[in-house]
Design brief:
This protein is an alpha+beta fold. It has nine helices and twelve strands. It has helices at 7-23, 65-76, 85-90, 107-116, 143-163, 211-219, 274-289, 300-313, 324-337, and strands at 35-38, 46-51, 58-64, 94-100, 126-132, 176-182, 188-195, 226-233, 250-256, 262-267, 294-297, 316-319. The strands form two sheets. A seven-stranded mixed β-sheet has the order 5-4-3-2-1-6-7. A five-stranded mixed β-sheet has the order 10-9-8-11-12. Strand 11, helix 8 and strand 12 (316-319) form a beta-alpha-beta unit.
Amino acid sequence: MRKEASTEQWKELYEIATKLKEDKPWEEFWDMDLIGVRRGSEEDTVFYSILGRGGGCYGIVVYEGYEGLNKFLMLTMQETMNLSVEYAMFSQQNLTCYWGNREELSEKQRKIIKELGYKYRGKNQWLYFMSYKPGYFPYNLDQDEVLRMTAHLKDLEAALQCYEKIDSPVQFENGEMFLLKINEDKNIFSFGAEPLPFTSFQFGNLVITDEELISELKEVSGADFILEADVSILGGSVNDKKYDRPANPSMCMIAEARSGMILKCEMTEPEEDAVAVLVETLVGFILQFGAPKEIRVSNVIVEAGLEHLCEICGTKLRRVKRLSNLDEFIEGFRRFGR
């Protein structure tokens, strides 16, 4: 059940964000210069990306833990991974504050500003916050996110103060971050340059562990057809009472490459792993119609997810630049939905 933050909780968040704006961290950092704050385990490190040094929108993006860092790297490697902009953006998991324009804000966000007594004028001056979560449309922060974001921005303020004290520059361009470690008593433990835990996107391979299913798949006869398989995030806001925020479904699709016929099309629930759903859909199809000679993909994350299945079935897995049949289908679906 979603719980909204109180006016006092929003007030504290706006106060710390407004204070950070006065420090103008974007004059010191580029968006790829990551700042880390660690309380406890390394996996729970919070990473900060500062937006605005190159002009445009000013902001602070907070990535929580290694999973958040991996999503950041997905975004930065979007082109080399051959991901669509929509896929990379709507797969993000972060909390963000922006200083944007009035028309960018929702009615609810403008109402919060009015209740707090803030008055903004001009371009890139309106402060608002967004929560990004895979499976859902970007949305306003709930109470827990407001409290977490407030704590994160306070930690960032401490990190920025410590950064001014370092003796030698951080080699951000060489895979370093500036890291502030804080112990349980909330006293600063240490700070300085430290290598990022990883500097390229970490793929998650899906491994089939059901021995009975593996045996069944190995016995399936090969078939002389080629499939296209993909996951596409629709980028649409779907409101449903069972969700505490608007959903943003993914479409798992299979097409026959030669004829262009769409064979399977499954829409996911917000909490489902879309690549896992695609694998399940392919398993069902293969058990019914046989193992294809080849499966073509364009998304490298989808490719990683299908590797084990294709290995079991003796199917060639081929990555191509574009899946023309599925791309045309999803473009038509989006046009129809507008």
